Amino acid sequence: MIPATGKRSFTIAVVPSVAEDKVFVNVHIKSLATSEWKRIAAANLKNVTDTDNGFIGIVTALGRDVSHMGFKIGDAVFGVINGDRVDTLGGGDQEYQSVKPEH
Predict the structure, then answer these.
(1) What are the pLDDT digits (tens) for 33-68?
(2) Where would I find the H helices in 1-103?
């Protein structure tokens, strides 16, 4: 697992072209026990259940009109990170992470 110090964070914002079943969130990177994760499914994220390629984060803010997606402030989430930026679209480092809760 990539070490998480709890001191790094990155800002993610809603993009109008995102599909309705996706939500953008601000995540603060933090170490958590796996029992605290909120698992997510995400567009083009690789190994979403493989902790060797991911990070644990805390949702610190939600984009507009996304409360119905099941995320709330304080949720623990898991996703894939490349350095300090999120690798989401298969084309290298991306500033935006598109995620949705598993149902």
Answers:
(1) 444 444 433 333 333 334 444 444 556 655 554 444
(2) none
